[in-house]
Amino acid sequence: MRIILVGFGVVGQSLARILLQRRPELVRSYGFNPKVVAVVDKGGAAVNMRGLDLEEILSLKVKEGTVAASRDGRPDLSALEVIESVEAEVMVEVTPTNIKDGEPGLSHIKSAFRTGKSVVTTNKGPLALALPALTELAEYSGVQLRFSGTVGAGTPILDLAKKCLLGDRIISIRGVLNGTTNYILTEMEEKHISFHQALKDAQRLGYAEANPSMDVDGLDTACKIVIMANWIMGRKVTLKDVKIEGIRNVTREDLEEASRRGRTIRLLGFIDKDLKVAPTEISKGDPLAVKGVLNAVTFTSEFTGEETIIGRGAGGMATASAVLRDLINIKEALSSTL
Ligand code: HSE
After folding, report:
1. Is any ligand 1 atom within 6 A of the Cβ of residue 217?
2. pLDDT at 338 over 70
3. Would you state the pLDDT for residue 107?
4. Helix residue spans in 31-123 (DSSP H)
């Protein structure tokens, strides 16, 4: 399978590392033979139709700051030029989320569809703004669109709801969907550190979005709520349908006071009649009272009742593992011999 990788930050580099480490096993276990033919970052591109040397690309990214410094470097090429001119089966889009207009991810995805490429993305912007339209466009173009890594990083939250609860009807969803804010709230509560110190640590650990306001103001959770409502529950909603409150006003004192009563505060996203994101007091015994960078989602379905899935919700390697899962699923869906 020929892959174009657009975006080479934490997730893109983690994916390259996983592909390097696991290649023989991927071929053996899944008949999946990934060949990264192009990588694009802010400094340009590297292109090699025989497959890029990912070890060289990774080390150049660290040393020179751009993949365009490689011997296969093309500083003159933009992402759109690469997507349009390089032959590949899949484009992996891992540029940062922008919820104003979804760009540049939205144009990358449309361009990939136009040129017959399936897409795997971790970019929540285009999906939160236009998931129904993008799903239709993918179908029309005869390609696949996968985005497991947009919700729960490597934890298969979307797959649990869509595949494992097949046939049942999910009535409502509530959950901790942002690792950064959960990490911040846990650190403030347990280590008695300030909001700003905890945020700095979350950024250093690669959990936070490029713009951390996305996390702390609840927008990232809202994007995930929109993706889940569309994908799992078939609702045609966008960000403007979500009532959003972040965690900036939650103090250490609020957390300590709740703790004395056996309770804690978590940033929860709700999909019920309405869509909402808000810091919410819950019992410490609630399955959603997870700690650190964990995510936890409770699905309430008609026949099964309540089911909660818990797992790591952020981090480069965790998110890259979801991208890999999507790539293998695409390979299987296309019944390809690539
Ligand atoms: N910034 C996000 C989080 C990354 O903290 O959950 C995963 O979407």
Report:
1. no
2. no
3. 98
4. 54-64, 79-85, 105-114
Record the pTM.
0.92
Question: Cβ neighbours of residue 85 under 8 Å, at least 6 residues apart?
Answer: 77
For residue range 174-207, list pLDDT tens digits in order.
999 999 999 999 999 999 888 999 999 998 888 8
Mean per-residue pLDDT for 16-23? 96
95 pocket-lining for ligand 1 (C-beta < 6 Å): no
Active site residue ranges: 224
Here the tokens at position 295 are: 């995510």
- Strand, coil or helix: 146: strand
More confident residue, 205 or 335: 205
Please give the angle made by the CA atoms of 99, 103 and 108, to the nearest 5 degrees.
135
CA 43 to chain CA centroid, Å, is 23
- CB half-sphere exposure, 136, CA atoms < 13 A: 6
Q: pLDDT digits over 264-281, tens only?
A: 999 999 999 999 999 999
| Binding site membership of 41 for ligand 1 (Cβ less than 6 Å) | no
Q: pLDDT tens across 73-94, in order?
A: 999 999 999 999 999 999 999 9
Q: In the 8-state DSSP scheme, what is residue 67? A: G
DSSP letter at 91 equals E
Q: What is the DSSP letter of 164?
A: I
Place of tokens 């569809």: 113
Work out whether the CA dihedral 78, 83, 85, 87 comes out positive or negative: positive
Ligand 1 contact, 8 CB (< 6 A):
no
CA 36 to chain centre: 20
Residue 288 pLDDT > 70: yes
- Beta strands 2-6 and 90-93 are parallel
CA of 14 to the centre of ligand 1 (A): 15
Burial status of residue 169 (CB atoms within 10 A of its CB: 0-12, 13-18, 19 or more): exposed
Show the domains of the chain with their CATH numbers: 2-153+317-336 (3.40.50.720), 157-312 (3.30.360.10)
For the CA of 224, the closest atom of ligand 1 is 8
